[in-house]
Design a protein that fits this description.
Layout lengths: L2 H5 L8 H4 L5 E3 L9 E4 L12 H6 L4 E4 L11 E3 L5 H12 L8 E6 L4 H14 L4 E4 L4 E3 L2 E3 L8 H13 L4 E5 L2 H5 L8 E6 L13 H9 L5 E10 L12 E4 L6 E9 L2 E8 L2 E7 L4 H16 L4 H8 L10 E2 L7 E5 L4 H14 L4 E5 L9 H12 L2 E4 L9 H9 L9 E2 L3 H10 L6 E5 L6 E4 L2 E4 L2 H11 L7
Parallel strand pairs: 1-2, 2-3, 3-4, 5-9, 5-10, 6-9, 10-11, 11-12, 12-13, 17-21, 18-19, 18-21, 19-20
Antiparallel strand pairs: 7-8, 13-14, 14-15, 16-17, 22-23
């Protein structure tokens, strides 16, 4: 591809001779620049790509696009974006370079505070069961053409999004399901992607360290509705407050007027069941994973599958064999007479829902273990403390991913929301907190270990160490004499 073709329509002036330069690739990280690449300098939150322009040039970049004039570098290869918005530019030229891969397959974008991961994985399970090879991008990892790609964020930057989608097409994926975070929508990561289906799961407090208000957070999430293809379909969950009313949207929930209405909910340790009233009839649905929220996730996934051309009977049948998502109400079963489950719940709404589900499953006590992450929205900490204390019979407040914050200070903020009469247990060492919770569990109890879910690490300062709640739960169970088999 020629530089002129790449930058056509961007408003960036390029001389005719320079515009004929061949482009081998794109990068916004100077460490990934190879000969023939275009380097896009972006001012980030913790670093500024403009500081690495000379490094990019020395690594072989044939052109650099800056957000502002760089007077100290006298090179014709440094071009200035007159809009000053290189995040948006990167999304646009990535689409050009990788030839709009979303036009060559079915695409689904899923956003919302909770339920994105489970809904995405249930939908992929349905598609694959129908013989439709499907890629995925999301919190627990990306899959392109069967190749597993570790995920550091829910939605990668626009360059990675576009490159992974091109890889999906090249590896014969016929569909792509993407979890779309509010950060991705705010930071232009999916600006040029177009979806056949967009699905809005729900909205509740989260990321208020990034979004100044809940209104701004919701408005950012709603941007996904502008990213549908001309024939695209919008799907909205109505099962939580503040769901957005969208014209001509397909809805799912428990309201009489929902396109896909959920009734007859039954939740047990072994799983859940419900009746789904669809436009063409009623369908009994079973889900192996316990938890009422898995019912909503399954209903949303079925609704999306139908919009993609899957017969509803086939979608319902596939859901019945779905094995669950790592770290989402994931059971740790070593033959004990009480339930131990690990869940990713790290927002007030998610914690409330998973603990309320625990009360429905518990024949005796509900024991909760949770903490809050450091360098994130601290306003939710006392809220989550209050929720846990009011729902669970026993609460262990512990550390999560403290990052650069003092773990004891985070715990103190959680405790500030818990009235003294609830008498929470405090154990900063997360492994010890898990052990203590499981050591006191008796027949019919439910132990919920919340916050980290699928994560197999803990971030202390800026260091990432191995830590897995599921492993710690198995260790604790084995210390009680139970035999755990993976």
């Amino acid at each position: 591809m020629k530089l002129n073709d790449l930058l056509k329509g961007t408003g960036i002036p390029v001389s005719s001779s320079f515009g004929d330069t061949d482009i081998a690739g794109l990068a916004y990280d100077s460490r990934k620049v190879l000969p023939g690449f275009v380097f896009v300098a972006i001012k980030g939150f913790s670093s500024d790509g403009h500081r690495f322009i000379e490094k990019a040039l020395s690594s072989g970049a044939v052109a650099v696009i800056s957000e502002r004039p760089i007077t100290k570098i006298n090179s014709p290869s440094v071009l200035v974006n007159p809009s000053g918005d290189n995040r948006n530019l990167l999304a646009a030229i990535s689409a050009v370079f990788y030839r709009n891969p979303w036009e060559e397959m079915k695409t689904v974008g899923i956003t919302g505070t909770n339920g994105k991961t489970s809904t995405a994985h249930i939908l992929r399970w349905i598609m694959e069961n129908r013989g439709i090879q499907t890629g995925i991008m999301g919190t627990v990892g990306h899959i392109a053409g069967g190749r597993n790609i570790p995920a550091s964020v829910t939605t990668p930057d626009s360059l990675e999004v576009t490159r992974y989608m091109r890889e999906m097409v090249n590896r014969e994926d016929r569909a792509c399901i993407m979890e779309v975070s509010s950060h991705a929508l705010a930071l232009c990561r999916v600006n040029n992607v177009r979806f056949d289906v967009v699905l809005f799961t729900n909205i509740s407090q989260d990321h208020l360290d990034f979004h100044p208000t809940m209104k701004e957070y919701l408005n950012t999430k709603k941007k996904i509705f502008t990213l549908t293809k001309d024939s695209g379909v919008k799907i909205v969950g109505t099962y939580t407050p503040d769901w957005p009313e969208v014209e001509n949207a397909v809805t799912f929930g428990e309201r009489a007027g929902d396109t896909y209405r959920i009734t007859g909910i039954k939740v047990q340790l072994s799983g859940s069941s419900f009746n789904l009233r669809a436009p063409d009839g009623n369908y009994p649905v079973t889900v192996k994973a316990p938890g009422r929220f898995n019912i909503y996730n399954a209903a949303g996934a079925i609704a999306a599958a139908v919009q993609l051309g899957v017969p509803i009977a086939g979608a319902v049948q596939a859901v019945s064999s779905f094995p669950g998502v790592p770290g989402r109400m994931e059971r740790v079963n070593c033959g004990q007479e009480f339930l131990v489950a690990v869940d990713y719940a790290h927002t007030p709404d998610a914690l409330e829902r998973v603990l309320k589900q625990g009360t429905l499953l518990a024949e005796n006590k509900l024991i909760a273990v949770f903490g809050c992450g450091g360098d994130r929205d601290n306003r939710k900490r006392p809220v989550m403390g209050k929720i846990a204390a009011e729902i669970a019979d026993v609460v262990f407040v512990t550390s999560d991913n403290p990052r650069t914050e003092d773990p004891s200070a985070i715990i103190d903020e959680i405790l500030s929301g818990i009235p003294e009469e609830y008498n929470p247990r405090v154990e900063q060492d997360r492994a010890e907190a898990v052990r203590m919770a499981i050591s006191m569990a008796e027949k019919g109890d439910v132990v919920i270990i919340a916050g980290k879910g699928h994560e197999d690490y803990q971030i202390l300062g800026k260091k990432k160490i191995h830590f897995d709640d599921r492993e710690q739960a198995r260790i604790a169970l084995e210390s009680r004499g139970y035999k755990c088999v993976l």
